[in-house]
Amino acid sequence: LILFPVAWPIALALDNLLGEEMGTVYNKKELEMLMQMHVDDEETPLTIRDQEIFRGMLQLSDHCVKDIMTKLEDCYMIEVDAMLTFDKMLDIYRRGYTRIPVYKGSKDFIVGLLYTKDLIMVDPEDDLPVERVLEFCNRELLSVDARTHLDLMFQQVESGRSHLYFVQNKVSEVDEATEHVAGVIGIVTLEDVIEELIQ
Ligand code: ATP
Ligand code: MG
């Protein structure tokens, strides 16, 4: 009370002169340290899952698409000229994938994306080539650079345009939809990104 007449005008003058206090802004490393301090405390309200998700979120932009993609040699794919015989459709069913990349000639040259639900209309007796189904169900082909950071990739898959992107080694970041994608080195799906996010 005694100092108020002096302290108050000084505080007011300083606020006007220097602006609002900046507060404490931590960088990602510091935030991780802060969480570690909470974790080390026995009374922490954070569960193991909270910690994992928090870490995954902070580290998302440290990784790129190439780190999490499914490599081309591990992809289940189908040739554009392949016939949709009963055996082929049984094989597709047994693999259980929802999206199957369609290639022409070489496996790194993608000309389509076959959704297993597109096969509902196909009669195995008709022996249709995959190409015919692609003409009917034209699915968007999207590609992404292998070096794209996962925070950007997350935004991309979150946009809901496609759940599967073809990974390429090239300069541009995220491509527009094309007729075909050349030089594919793998695929990345929404699940791959979420898995990384929630560890
Ligand atoms: P959904 O869950 O939407 O039905 P899905 O189970 O077929 O689709 P995802 O859940 O997107 O596929 O992906 C699961 C894992 O399988 C991911 O690691 C992804 O890279 C991989 N994957 C997806 N499609 C294929 C495919 N055709 N061949 C090999 N791996 C695939
Ligand atoms: Mg799945």
Outline the structure in words:
This protein is of the alpha/beta class and 199 residues long. Helix content is 39%, strand content 17%. It has helices at 4-18, 28-40, 48-59, 65-68, 86-95, 130-136, 150-158, 190-197, and strands spanning 70-71, 78-79, 99-104, 106-115, 143-145, 164-168, 184-189. The strands form 2 sheets. Strands 1-7-6-5 form a 4-stranded mixed β-sheet. It has a 3-stranded mixed β-sheet with strand order 2-3-4, with helices on one face. Helix 2 (28-40) runs antiparallel to helix 3 (48-59). 18% of the residues are buried. The model has no long low-confidence stretch (mean pLDDT 90).
List the helices and strands and how they pair.
Elements: H1 4-18, H2 28-40, H3 48-59, H4 65-68, E1 70-71, E2 78-79, H5 86-95, E3 99-104, E4 106-115, H6 130-136, E5 143-145, H7 150-158, E6 164-168, E7 184-189, H8 190-197
The structure holds adenosine-5'-triphosphate and magnesium ion.
The site of adenosine-5'-triphosphate has 14 residues, from strand 3, strand 7 and helix 8.
